[in-house]
Amino acid sequence: MLSNTGYVILGFLATGPHSGYEIKQKVDVSTRLFFAASYGQIYPELKKLDEQGLATGEQHQQGQRARVEYSITDAGRAALDEWIDRAVTKVEFRDEGLLRLFFADTDSPEQRLRVLRAMRDDRAATLAVLEQIKSKHLDEPVERRGLALDYGLGLFEYAVNWCDRTIAELEQQAK
Amino acid sequence: MLSNTGYVILGFLATGPHSGYEIKQKVDVSTRLFFAASYGQIYPELKKLDEQGLATGEQHQQGQRARVEYSITDAGRAALDEWIDRAVTKVEFRDEGLLRLFFADTDSPEQRLRVLRAMRDDRAATLAVLEQIKSKHLDEPVERRGLALDYGLGLFEYAVNWCDRTIAELEQQAK
DNA sequence: CCTCGCATGTAACACGTTACATGATTCA
DNA sequence: TGAATCATGTAACGTGTTACATGCGAGG
After folding, report:
1. Interval B110-150: pLDDT, tens
2. Which pTM does this prediction carry?
3. CA gap B84, B89 in Å, rounded
4. Rounded CA separation B3/B46 (Å)
5. Which backbone phi and psi does B55 adopt, to 5 degrees?
6. What does residue A138 show for φ and ψ, rounded to 5 degrees?
7. Contact A151 B98 (CB under 8 A)
8. Burial class (CB in 10 A: 0-12, 13-18, 19+), B52
9. Could you tell me the distance in Å between the CA of residue A95 and the C1' of nucleotide C9?
10. Do B84 and A111 touch (CB under 8 A)?
11. Residues 96..115 of B with a Cβ closer than 8 Å to A: which?
12. Closest CA relative to residue B9, chosen from B88, B90, B68
């Protein structure tokens, strides 16, 4: 069995040959919000993919610089398709802000407000990043992958609004 | 430094003495949605808390049955407060459904719809659990911790609605 | 008597991040 | 010439889950 990271790599290889370095870059500007990956996973995973015949690596020497380009195989495409159709769509999130808020509850409203404001700023920053990504993609031919971006945008909009609403309520109560 | 799990334990101990078993139960019905913990973390962490003087364990023998009850110390309370006020409110989520959807995009609309429907069902199930928890808490004196529940409820409502909306759009396009 | 819930704990494993080591090429 | 970027990779570490081992007590 492959790890999720392995399938993510296959997913990118399905759009064309890539080096490990390029895959890392692609992950960082696309799936990172809901699935990150580091070199420490990518490179070993590429080797494993090669061993299992799901991808093949080729040395593409550019002068003295090493560069290994991986391509997906038919078996790789089949494995990717099979994975997409597995009915596992588990979502798990770890929210340190919410956690702090949860335990701040018994304390002063000032503490709760401090936590809420920090949460708000944090989520607003992420939202801004997403909006920037969206505006960048506007001039490109409509990206079908935009679905995930759309989802994230709505999610963080909700988060920011919730924080604003809750801050307002607490301030109301405090006065 | 303590792990987040350590602070979560301190957070529960701040409301009164608990055994490791009880903490696990509390986590499972409250923070689990945004922060889970297993026995494999809880028991070693309780020992560490004791060693660092942030909590103290006492044997409460009930007949032949072993039971260690931990209480928070003043140093523990201070550490908890300090942690709550640290301005780290990072949220990270891993969404396998979104990931599959992302890589399904280049394929058939049928595949995308299958993924979306699986996502919808999964999120609707979580939403139902949250609603059940909320209804349980209605007869209790108003829980200030309800803030986190409220946030989760809204979040999963958004997720279900987004899935429904997107499914409808794709079906429209397909016909 | 047997099952379920209470209760504690550990060892092996899986996963992922961080930091480090190394070196080429490009561009200001 | 020096910084940034391209490029590959590993070792150590941290964190968390799963599976297992063990045994008491209560109620049907």
Report:
1. 999 999 999 999 999 999 989 988 887 655 544 567 889 99
2. 0.91
3. 10
4. 11
5. -150, 160
6. -60, -35
7. yes
8. middle
9. 28
10. yes
11. 96-107, 111, 114-115
12. B68
